[in-house]
Structures are given as C-alpha cells and as structure tokens.
Amino acid sequence: MSIENCGTVKIAILNLMPLKQATEADFLRIFADSPMPVEIDWLKIKNHVSKNTPQAYLDAVYKNWEDVREKSYDGLIITGAPVELLEYESVTYWKELQEIMNWAHEHVPSTLYICWAAQAALYHFYNIPKYPLSQKMFGIFNHQVNDASAPLVSGFESGFYVPHSRHTEIRKEDVLKVSALTLLTESPESGVHIVTARGGRDIFVTGHSEYAPDTLHTEYQRDLNKGLPIERPVNYYINDDPERGIAFQWRDDAIRLYHNWLAHYCTPI
Description:
It is a single chain. This protein is of the alpha/beta class. It has helices at 20-32, 55-61, 65-68, 94-107, 116-126, 172-176, 215-225, 251-264, and strands at 9-14, 38-44, 62-64, 75-78, 111-114, 131-145, 160-169, 181-187, 191-197, 202-205. It is globular.
C-alpha cells in the first residue's frame, strides 16, 4: 500500500515514559507530517501511579487497555520506560504489560516496541536477555541498513542517524540465534537497532527516532544537576560544543521511519 492511498490510520500508544506530555508531543510532531490522517488513543497502565503527570490529566486523556481491548487498531506503539536496570519480573506492571503484548500479538496488525519496550518484548517472546552497559549509550549514532528491500527502511541509506539513551543493551549474537528474527538495521557503536518478526507484525527498535531536538540536552543537564555520572551526548552538539547548539540530523529519517510503518504495516490483518 502506498502512503498516498492510506485512509485514516487508527493507532494506540501505550505511553510508559515518565514525562508523558513530552512524549505525546514527540509522536504528535512526527505524525503531523504524515500524508494520511492518524487517530491516536493514549493508553496507560491501569494501576501504575505516575510521579510526573497529574492523575486528573491521565484520567482525562488516557485509557486503560482493558477498556479498549475489544477495539480494532491498525497499529500499536509501546514506548520505553525508565526501568531498564530492573529485572523484568521486578517491574510492578510486568504482568499487565505481558497481557498487553500477548493481546497485540493476536489482534494488532503491527506493534512498534521502542527502547526498553523492545528489550522487554524480545525477552517476553524470545527469551533474549538484556545486559547492563558500563557507560550509558547516549547520543546520536550512525547506523547501517542490512536489508534495503524491507518497506520499513524504504528510502533509507546506510549512514542514517538515530538518538539512543539507555543503560542496557541486547546483543547481536543473541538475535541471530533466533531464526524468527531479522536484524534489519544496526550500528557499529550502539549495536542492534531494528529487529523485525512475523513479517513486520512485531518491530523492535532500540533507539528513539521520535525524540525532539532538545531531549538529550534536557537529560544531560538533568543528570549534571543531580551529580550523576554522565558523559556529553555523542555526535549531538555542533562541533561537540553545547554553546554552538544541536545538530538535528535525525529528523528526516525519523519521519521516514514512522511514515513507512504507517503506510506499509498498519493495515488490517
């Protein structure tokens, strides 16, 4: 299906990020440039209490998965979450997330798992472990395309950039052991990037292409102010100088990635 021929695409976004309104803005900005209209339902974990978003806002804007599980969606996005150093089974909402992932596996044409959610889904479905990093993977990294025929990376060329911000990783050798998985894109620096399964019904993305230009800067300043060990984000500031501003070099490919997903994967089963 071409982008031009798509009608309204109905997607749900399970937003596990702490700053939920900032994450909403990231995705709304990406989809605002889409040639086809996108209808979004924002989902939340039922019994999880957010520390950064008022409950009244969540009640007004967000739905529980249980309330929409009978609704038909063309696609689902599950975001990252700041729990990556915890064992999966120690995450308070792990059982509910497993139920949502199982439901998506059967009822949603394509699910896009982002960052921690990608690691969690690969563990849940394929028992692929995550590993702690000695230093945070933090910055904008160069990536290569392993299979240019995949519609998801249509228009991409090796040498595209993606933001990463994480303390854990999945390893290439573990992915390659599973015949059901395809390693679509990767980076010599940040490792595994996009893994697909079931013809694109499951897409696992370790980076954050949707990030706004200043997101990593905000994280960097936050950690500096807290006295946490943090290095300057790689390939992020112009001439590596925060005073010179940010090189927003991932924008076009970010839009391309999400628009390819909408056009080629978010279609009825």
